[in-house]
Design brief:
Strand order of the largest sheet: 1-2-3-4
Order of helices and strands: EEEEH
Mean pLDDT: 88
Distance between the termini: 58 Å
Strand content: 15-25%
Helix content: 40-55%
Number of helices: 1
Number of strands: 4
Bound molecules: zinc ion
Structural class: alpha+beta
Shape: elongated
């Protein structure tokens, strides 16, 4: 996951230093997980003009401790689900190959 993610729709219509509407983003750093901020529309390009203002109030210390752990657990579970899905596809392919081989052998034995 990247350090921030953007969403559309900015309450208050804040403009950045390059006179474009700022973009509401969500921080995913360990020190501010899930905290939203408004940044330049070119934030991905070395943070654009450098405009930055927090949209959400500071997070409590408990949230800063708990949320990163939950995010790590979520990423681990998502990775395990991806691996399980990949294994499922392999087993289905192997099963199809087995059925085809059985059919070929069965037809060959009848000849
Ligand atoms: Zn800007």
């Amino acid at each position: 996951m990247s350090a921030s993610s953007a969403t559309s729709g900015i309450p208050g219509q804040t403009s950045c230093y390059c006179n474009h509407l700022g973009v509401l983003r969500t921080s995913w750093t360990d020190s501010n997980p899930g905290r939203r901020f408004i940044g330049c529309h070119k934030w991905q390009e070395a943070h654009g003009c450098g405009f930055f203002v927090w949209f959400d109030p500071p997070m409590c210390e408990r949230s800063k401790m708990v949320i990163p752990g939950l995010l790590r657990t979520l990423r681990r579970v998502e990775d395990e689900a991806k691996r399980a899905k990949k294994m499922d596809r392999r087993f289905k392919t192997l099963l199809m190959v087995t059925w085809v081989l059985c059919a070929v052998v069965g037809i060959w034995c009848m000849i």
